[in-house]
Amino acid sequence: MQSLEGLCQHSPYLTRLMRRYPDLAKTLQPEILTAALEAEINACSSTNAIPTLNGLEKRLRRAKERVALLLAYGDRIAGWPVDRITDSLSRFAEHAVAASLAFHWSEAMRRLKSPDAQEQNIAGLFILAMGKMGAYELNYSSDIDLICFFDADVLAAMGVHNPQEFANRLVRAVVQSLEKRTADGYVFRVDLRLRPDPGSSPLAVNLGAAIGYYQSLAQNWERAAFIKARMVAGCSECAQAFLGELDPWIWRRTIDYAALSDLASMKARATEHAGQNGKGFAGYNVKLGTGGIREIEMYAQINQLLFGGRDPSLRAPGTVAALNALYVGGYISRDICDDLCGAYAFWRELEHVLQMVDDAQTHSLPETDHALKNIAAMMTLSLDELKAKVHTTRDCVHGHYAALLANDQPQDTRHAAAALWSDHDPDAQAIIAAWPKANLPALRTSRSQRLMAHCLPQLLQAFGKSDQPIAALERFDRFLRNLPSGVQIFSQLTANENLADLFANVMASAPILAELLSKRPSLWGPVVEPEYFEPIGTHSDIEEDFDQFASRARDYQDMLNITRQYVAEQKFRLGIQFLQNIADLDEIGQALSDVASVALTRLAASTRMEFEAKYGAFPGGNLYILALGKFGAQSLTFTSDLDLVFLYDAADPKAQSSKGLSASQYYSRLVQHIISAVTALTPEGRLFELDTRLRPHGAQGPLVAHLTTFAHYYQADAWTWEYLALTRCRLVFSTAHDTKRLYTALDDALSCSRATQNIFADTTAMWDRLVQDLPPKSQWDFKRSSGGIVQIELLVQALWLANRAVLSTKSVANIEAAITELEMAGVIPRDDAAFLRRTYYRFRHLQALFRLCFGRTILDQDALPHHIVSHIQRIMGEASLSAAKAAISADKDRTAQLFAHLLIEPNMETGS
C-alpha cells in the first residue's frame, strides 16, 4: 500500500481533486470512509431542493468528483477489492441517471399541464443500463451504456400529443445533463448505440417496435448485451414486463453454437480494429487486447448463452459471478474459473490505475518507459514485475478463450466421403452426391454448408464404423432433408467432436431417437450439458423442473406446445441413457412414467382452467383420471400408449353448471378437451397416444363414467380381464381434496366375489384366445410369445387377485414386487419366484431394446447388428448369441410350464 501523498504524485487528476475538495481530507480514513462514500452517493439521488437545472448539474458533477476521490483512496490505500470499487461507481451512476430523469420528467409534466399527469411517478418510460453499468462493473472513466424505451399508449393516455418526440426530448435532456462539460466537469459520457439499429432509430425506442426487432432481427451480440441489462430509472413495472418478454429470446433452451461463432468473430474484429493482435507490452490494451478483459467477458457470456436457457443459475450479469456459476454448475473446471477470475481482477485493477492518472478514457498501457514506471508504481510493482504479470495473465486468458472456440474452416465434402467410403458403396456415394443438388433448407446458406463440410468427415467415419453404415447414412439423409436449418446442429457437432460418435450411434442404432431428432433437431443441444447423463430425478424433481420449463407459457396454446417440448426432450434424454447403458429399464420405466404423469396432470389442470373460464365450475363435482397397464405400473417404454380411465363424482346428481350443463354433459366435455389437449397434433406433434378402452363397457361405454356407475359395473357386469387390468390401477389426477370415495370403490371392485370367480379358468381361456388372435411375429417377440411378458403378467395378476385377501398391497404396482409378495405368502415356490423375476426382467429389457432400435417392427432374422447382439448377450448373461437364444427359448418353455402348473392343475389350493 502507499500514502495519499505518494498516490497523488502519480495522478494529476487526484491532485486536482484534493485541492478542490480539501474538506474530504478528514474523511480519508479507513474507519469512516464507507460512511462518507455512501453519503456522497445518496446525496445525488434526490432532486428535492433543486429548483434549477444548473443546480442539478452542479450537484451531480461535484458528487462524481468526490466519489472518485474517495474510491481512489479506498482502491489504492485502503485495499478495497475491485468489485467493491466497481459496485460503488455503478450505484452512483444509477443514482445520477435516476436523478436526472426524475428532474426532467417533472419539468416535462409541468410543461404538459395535464390533470392526469403524475409528476412524481414516471410512467410509460424507463431506462436500461447495459454493459458494465448494468453488471455493476463500471470503472473510473467508463462510458455508461443506456437504452431508453417508452410505451406510446401510456404516454398518450397522460395527454402527451407526440409520444416519440416527447421521449426523444426527455432522453436528450437527460444525456446532456450527464455528459455536458461545465466548469464543474462532467458526470458520465453516455453511449446510446446499443439500442436497436442505432444508425437510423430515434434516441428513445417504442416498446412495440423494440419487441418486434429483438424477436426477429436482432443479432447474437445483442443477446449477449442483454445478459447485463437492468432497469436504473423510470417505470419499473414497464421495464420488468419488457425484460420478461425478452427472456425467451435471450435465454434459448436450444444450445446455439452459432452464437459462439458470431461473438468470437465480433471479438476478433474489435481486436483487429484496436491493433491488438500482437503480444507487446507498451501500448497493450487491457480491454480489447488478446487475452484481455473482453476475452474473459466473452468466455463467460458465450457459455451463458449456450447453457443459460436451460440453467437459470447461469444468468448472473456480473463476469466473476457468471464464471463462478459456470464452475458450480459443472460447465468449467475450478482451474479455469480461478484463472479467469484472478485475471479479471488484475486487469480491472490495472484499468482503474490507467484511468486514475488523468481521468482519461483509456484502456492501453503507456508507450514510454517513464509513463509505464508511473503505472507500475501505482500498482506497487516494479516495471519488470508489471511486464511479467501482463504477459502471463494475457497468455493464460487467451489460452482458455482460444480453447473455447470452434475451428470453422471449410473442407471438401465429396473428398471426405471418397476417402472414407470406398467405391463399392455406390448407395452411399449416391446419397452424399445428391445433397448439393437437392436445394435442402439445411444447406441453403454458405455458413451451414461450411459447417457441415467441417463436421461431415468425422460423422462419415463414425457411420462407417457402425454395424449398419448404410442404414445410418440413410437415416442421416432423412434427418438432413427434414432439417429446417443446418447451422444449429452442425455448429454443435463442429464445436464438440465427441458428439459425432454418439450422434452416429443414434443414427445407426436407434431409429426412434433418430426420428425424434429429425422432427426436433433442438433435442440434440442439451446432450452436451454436464447433467444430461445424470438421472432426471424423482417425481418431485420432475414436477419442479417442468414447472420451471412451463413458466414461460404465455397462454394455453403455449402450454400445449411447451408440454410436448418437455416430454420430447426427456424421452430423448432417457433413450440416450438407455442406449449408452447408463440407466436400466426399471429406472427408465419409472422416469418415463413420472414424466408422463407430470405432463398429464399439469396439462389436465391447465385444460380444466381453460374449460372453466368458458363453462364455469361444476358445484360439488370432481374428476378422477386413473392410469392402468404399463402406465399404472409405472413401467412405460418408449413406444407405450397411456391407458386411462376417466371418472367423475357429483355430490348432487341434479346439479347443473352455471351454463346449464348436467354433470354427465359437463364432465364429458371436459374429458374430451383433456383428451384433445393430449392427442392433438400441434406444431410440436402429439403428446401421447391414449387408450381409453379399459373404461366400463369398453369402447361402447361413455367416455367418462360416474363413480357410482363404475362401482356398480364391477359389482355386476365386469369381465375377468377387466378385474385383471384393474389390479394395476393408480390415480394420477384428481380435483378432489378427499379421494376416500374413489379408493373405496376401487377396493370394493377388486374384493367382490365376481373378481375371483373362475379366475384361473378365465385367465387360461384369455391366454388361449390371445395366442390365436395375435400370435407372436418372430422369435424376437418377447411380449406375445408363449412364455413371454404378457403370459407372466397374466399369471401374476391372476394369482395376486385370487389371493388378495392375504396380501398386504392393494394393487399390482410392480410385477416383480408382486411375485415377491406371492412368494412370501407361499403361493409361488421360492425357486419359481426367483426364475419369474429374472425372466420378466430380462424379457422386458430385451423388448425395450428392440423397440428402441427397431420401433414396432419385429425382426425375423438371425443377422442382428453387432451392438444389438452385445446387448442380448449382456442381458442374458451368455458369451454368444447362440447361447443367448437357447437360454431365451428355455426361459419361455419354463414360464409356459409354470403358467399351466399354477393356473390349470386342479390340486392347487387357490384353484378355481
Tell me what you see in this structure.
There is one protein chain. The protein is mainly alpha-helical and 912 residues long. It is built from 39 helices and ten strands. Strands 1, 2, 3, 4 and 5 form a five-stranded mixed beta sheet that branches. Strand 7 (642-650), helix 29 (663-679) and strand 8 form a beta-alpha-beta unit. Helix 30 runs parallel beside helix 32 (740-751) and helix 35 packs across helix 36. It starts with a helix and ends in a 9-residue tail after the last helix.
Radius of gyration: 35 Å
What proportion strand?
Answer: 5-15%
Our count of helices gives: 39
The best one-word shape is elongated
Indicate the low-confidence ranges by residue numbers.
Answer: 406-420, 906-912
Q: Calculate the terminal CA-CA distance, rounded to whole Å.
A: 95 Å
Residue-averaged pLDDT, rounded? 85
Number of strands: 10
Structural class: mainly alpha
Biggest sheet record: 5 strands, mixed
Percent helix range: 55-70%
